[in-house]
Amino acid sequence: MSTQNSEPEIPVRRVDRLLAFSALGIAAASVICFFAIIIGTAVGMDQSAFGEGLWPLIAAIPFWGLPIAFVMIIALLVMSFIRKGRAASRS
Fold first, then answer.
1. How far is it, in rounded angstroms, from Cα 51 to Cα 82?
2. Helix H segments across 1-91?
3. Are the C-beta atoms of 20 and 76 separated by less than 8 Å?
């Protein structure tokens, strides 16, 4: 009792994969850096230590990375809806 879908299979484009994996990578890096800041604070680092070395970069990644990943996911969804709409109108 299998039901077959009469709609044609929509191929996934390279730009869709690029957006999906880039958004996933940026979001994962942001979460890892966020936890690094939490762990650094928990082990007793003072506020002046976060202004030295790689810590400003580690703090900037979640600040900029999460909104960028969100925008990339929204763009991916919009592109997917447009592609599926065009495929449905052709059928």
1. 45
2. 14-42, 55-90
3. yes
pLDDT tens profile 3-18:
666 656 777 789 999 9
Contacts 24+ apart (CB under 8 A), 80-88: 80/16, 83/10, 83/13, 84/10, 87/7, 87/8, 87/10, 88/7
* Cα three-residue angle 30-37-66, rounded to 5 degrees: 20
Token pair of 73, please? 């996911």
pTM of the model: 0.80
Token code pair at residue 15: 């730009």
